[in-house]
Write a structure and sequence with these properties.
200 residues, alpha+beta, 6 helices, 12% strand, globular
């Protein structure tokens, strides 16, 4: 059984929907699942749109169970371009949250409250300097721009910052009993430790 469906093409790149995403209906309301789907889709399309504008190839875009991705050929991509491409995702969620708030203020449509919450949470979560989240990748690129002669040290600093924020996030998850976010925090911690070990 094929576990993905092609929805449409965006600026020449196929956009897929992974059927695993439907598992979210098991523990979230239908309206919340729709809000997450739309918000993640806009986020990934924003990455792709900026990448296309800057001349980078976008192989495909897809929405999966807990995340989305725009597969972009960024080999030898200057940090300045990478920051624009990566930053487009969180910015799109911030703007979508603001627009949803404005429309909700004028119409009172209940669904828009979920769009506001989902997009603001996505924005905050994605700007945390945790690699490989958007914020962590932006932070690493900024360090490499400031330290072009010592990219190794730049990566080490970004990995240590990622580790500290990941541990703090895990602490928050334990305090609030957020199981799923806690699992992601553990994955982020593992990834940071792995990267630091590799750089030694």
């Amino acid at each position: 059984m094929k576990l993905e469906l092609k929805m449409f093409n965006f600026q020449g790149s196929p956009v897929y929907f992974k059927l695993w995403f439907l598992l979210l209906f098991a523990w979230l309301t239908p309206s919340m699942v729709v809000a997450i789907f739309l918000s993640v889709l806009v986020h990934e399309l924003a990455h792709a749109a900026v990448a296309n504008r800057l001349g980078y190839n976008v192989r495909q875009i897809y929405i999966d169970l807990f995340y989305g991705a725009a597969e972009i050929d960024l080999d030898h991509c200057p940090e300045r371009d990478a920051i624009q491409i990566i930053g487009a995702g969180p910015i799109s969620n911030l703007l979508l949250g603001i627009v949803s708030f404005g429309v909700y203020a004028g119409t009172g449509i209940p669904f828009l409250t979920e769009m506001i919450v989902v997009n603001i949470v996505m924005f905050i979560f994605n700007i945390l300097p945790i690699y490989p989240m958007d914020g962590g990748r932006i932070f690493r690129s900024l360090l490499m721009m400031k330290m072009p002669s010592n990219r190794r040290l730049a990566k080490q600093i970004s990995d240590w910052v990622s580790l500290v924020f990941s541990v703090a996030l895990l602490g928050y998850c334990i305090y609030t009993s957020s199981l799923m976010l806690g699992i992601f925090s553990l994955l982020f911690i593992y990834y940071a430790l792995k990267e630091l070990k590799y750089l030694k």
